[in-house]
């Protein structure tokens, strides 16, 4: 079963995909969100579902450090509900606290320039989210 991992932001959606065995997550792309037409986001997700034969979504849930869900988390939950309604596929939220920090640390350790980091940070964060979920399932 292949799973699509999403790191949902206001301007971008980082996308990762699992291998068929559900062991590893790979970066796919960053979807630039359209302010004028949210349909474009869902059209691209539909294409990715077909391309990778996706059976499930894991969407990062940004929680506050004390575990509560703030406005950003509520927006991600609304997005997840819309993904579920539009695709008919199961959607699971995954605690993404510190995923962006882990992605930044990984890119810094790879000695990537600031400009390049900015271009890929969201898809690396999506990998961190999906890999965290996969690791929890394979224990």
From TrEMBL:
Gene3D superfamilies named in the record: YqgF/RNase H-like domain
Localization, UniProt: Cytoplasm
Gene Ontology molecular function, alphabetical: hydrolase activity
Occurrences of domain YqgF/RNase H-like (ranges): 1-103
Keywords: Cytoplasm, Hydrolase, Nuclease, Ribosome biogenesis
UniProt cross-references to InterPro entries, sorted A to Z: RNaseH-like_sf, YqgF, YqgF/RNaseH-like_dom, YqgF/RNaseH-like_dom_sf
Any single Pfam family the record assigns to this protein: RuvX
CDD domains, per database record: YqgF
Its EC number(s): 3.1.-.-
Family to which the UniProt record says this protein belongs: Belongs to the YqgF HJR family.
PANTHER family the UniProt entry points to: POLYNUCLEOTIDYL TRANSFERASE, RIBONUCLEASE H-LIKE SUPERFAMILY PROTEIN
Protein's job: Could be a nuclease involved in processing of the 5'-end of pre-16S rRNA.
HAMAP family per the UniProt record, alphabetical: Nuclease_YqgF
Protein name as annotated: Putative pre-16S rRNA nuclease
């Amino acid at each position: 079963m292949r799973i699509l991992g999403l790191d949902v932001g206001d301007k971008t959606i980082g996308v990762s995909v699992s291998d068929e065995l559900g062991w590893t997550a790979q970066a796919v792309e960053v979807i630039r969100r359209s302010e004028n037409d949210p349909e474009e986001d869902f059209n691209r997700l539909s294409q990715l579902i077909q391309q990778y034969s996706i059976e499930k979504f894991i969407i990062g849930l940004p929680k506050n450090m004390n575990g509560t869900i703030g406005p950003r988390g509520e927006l991600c939950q609304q997005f997840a509900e819309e993904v579920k309604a539009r695709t008919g596929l199961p959607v699971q939220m995954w605690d993404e606290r510190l995923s962006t920090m882990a992605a930044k640390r990984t890119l810094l350790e790879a000695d990537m320039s600031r400009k390049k980091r900015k271009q890929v940070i969201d898809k690396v964060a999506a990998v961190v989210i999906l890999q965290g979920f996969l690791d929890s399932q394979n224990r």
